[in-house]
Amino acid sequence: MKTKKRILIYCIAVICGLIIMVGKTNISGNVYGKYFMNTVQTDEDIEEVLTVEDIDGNTYRIVQIGEQWWFAENLRTTRYANGESILLVTDKKEWVKLTEGAWCWYDNNSNHDNTHGKLYNWYAVGDSRNICPEGWHVPTDEEWYMLENFVDPTIDDPNAINWRGADAASKLKAPDVLFTGGSRGVRATNQYGFSAHISGYRHHHGIFLNIEGTGMWWTSTEYTKDFAWYRMMYYDLSNIRRITDNKKLGYSVRCIKD
């Protein structure tokens, strides 16, 4: 009898938890965005994960790192948060001319979508219509620094340029990628569940480069009229690069909670 009561109480608690998590309530209980608690069966255990949905209906795992909530996947949307379309540009000559927001898949191949997401130029990132779901935004240069400093305290100067820290990238990169580049080879631990994949990029000349070799993520912070800050991870390095480049480049995008 006691066992049946315990089972009943557990079931009620689970149902109540799901009711609380589903709907227009974020992690802190404020009203905006759709959050869902999903149960995922793995080989070893049953795992509960939080996800958020974009305007296209794509769902993304989200993870708390320090005081920040981040997407644990690259953005895949084709529309801004207000429902207006982001321009799809496949032709490299057209990509070169762009001064408005655009996206593409690496090599114009949709098979990359689930793992690597889409590549966006900075004009899409900087658009006031917001490329991220309601209640989320593309992280600033400062917010990226906060992430880096939390996972690797040796990154202690927000203004330092180029390669920084000791092992932040190793802790943030997806666990299914083994890096064996000679003496520089390191295994990604994905210690915080950020799951960064090395997704390559689109050059501002329109060509695609270096999938599984280099991963780049835009920040929302401009450097000049034509350049903006971004972060880079190499497949075989354990630290992270902070640098600027041309806004026409196509990079991956992560979102962070407002």
Strand content bin:
25-35%
Span of the ends, CA to CA: 47 Å
Continuous helix count = 6
Number of domains: 2
Number of DSSP strand runs: 15
Throw out a few tags for this protein.
single chain, 258 residues, 2 domains, 26% strand
Itemize the secondary structure elements and their pairings:
Layout: H1 2-21, E1 35-41, E2 46-53, E3 59-65, E4 68-71, E5 87-88, H2 92-97, E6 102-104, H3 113-116, E7 119-120, H4 122-125, E8 136-137, H5 141-151, E9 162-164, H6 168-172, E10 201-202, E11 208-209, E12 214-222, E13 227-234, E14 240-246, E15 256-257
Parallel strand pairs: 5-6
Antiparallel strand pairs: 1-2, 2-3, 3-4, 6-7, 8-15, 9-14, 10-11, 12-13, 13-14
How would you describe what is shown here?
- A hairpin with a 5-residue loop joins β2 (46-53) and β3.
- It is globular and about 40 Å long.
- It is an alpha+beta fold.
- The longest helix has 20 residues, at 2-21.
- The protein is 19% helix and 26% strand.
- The chain folds into two domains: 2-53, no CATH class; 87-257, no CATH class.
- Strands 1-2-3-4 form a four-stranded antiparallel β-sheet. A four-stranded antiparallel β-sheet has the order 9-14-13-12, covered by helices on one side. A three-stranded mixed β-sheet has the order 5-6-7.
What would you say about this model in short?
The protein is built from 6 helices and 15 strands.
